[in-house]
Amino acid sequence: MTAQIHTLILAAGKGTRMKSELPKVVHPILGKPMVSYVIDAAKAVGSEKTIVITGFKSELVRHTLTNEQVEFVEQPQQLGTGHAVQCYARTSPSRPNHLMVVCGDTPLISQQTLKQMIELHLQQRPAITMMTLEMSDPGNYGRIIRRDGKVVAIREAKDCTKEELKITEVNLAVYLFDTDFLFSNIFKLNSKNSQNEFYLTDLVEMAEKQGLKVQAVIEKDESSTLGINSRQHLAQVGAILQSKILDYHMTRGVTIVNPAQTLIGPDCEIAPDTTIWPGCIITGRCRIDTNCEIGPNTVVFESDIGANSKIQCCIVEKATIPAGKTPAPYSKIVSGSSF
Known about the structure:
Spore Coat Polysaccharide Biosynthesis Protein SpsA, Chain A, alpha/beta, 24 strands, 5-stranded parallel β-sheet
């Protein structure tokens, strides 16, 4: 019997440093809400159900993710990561064998490392498997406390001693829990710390005291761990994602004349021998067939463009352009447009 894994995405915060009335996790990156990248990663590694913890402007988050096939649990007060999981545990009618917990503001999260975590967790059957990272400058990240090589605790930076602050292995707030352990201990957490919050990280020390195993998988790619807390972070992560997307299409035979002046979203399919000229913005679920010329200075959103089409200086929104068509430059083509 296959072990059942669900994913809980922590997405309740406002994101004060974003200086926005939008909840942080719905800010778009290349036309797609940042939390949607995390949802995609969870589904890609075999999670059978995804639950999103909402808080600030919960209804707006739910509306933004209407088509994502996820469930929602509200965290009315943001009292820490442990409290978020408590909110889930109180409302969960049944529980899976294992629960993966990730943050909604980490759109670069590595599917490969998540798969490694799952494989290790299912092989070793620990109480907790977690993701860590070695950093030369760990800053405010929580430190991984080891004894004889084994993980025994996670210490939030504000609660660390001077010696503990010298530790370079840090917590990435990505966990996979055995739910028998989780549900037996989640309500034993307390808020006796500098933040007066319920820390999910305290479960590691609780597991160790109960004689249970805690496993860690070390992430090798630091860029995949970047969380978004500001507009600068949003731009930084967007640039990394864009570079990967453009490289993906060029590797598969698409000509992108000037990558620095081209924006292509993550859900676009472009066939080989198509050329994308500078000044193009292609986002949403788009399909562009072979031997097309798109641009210059063209916007394509949620559209299907047939083979051998030439689209110059146009706006194409939720439209279907038949094969071999060349709309007049400066046209706006929408659903139902005729040729």
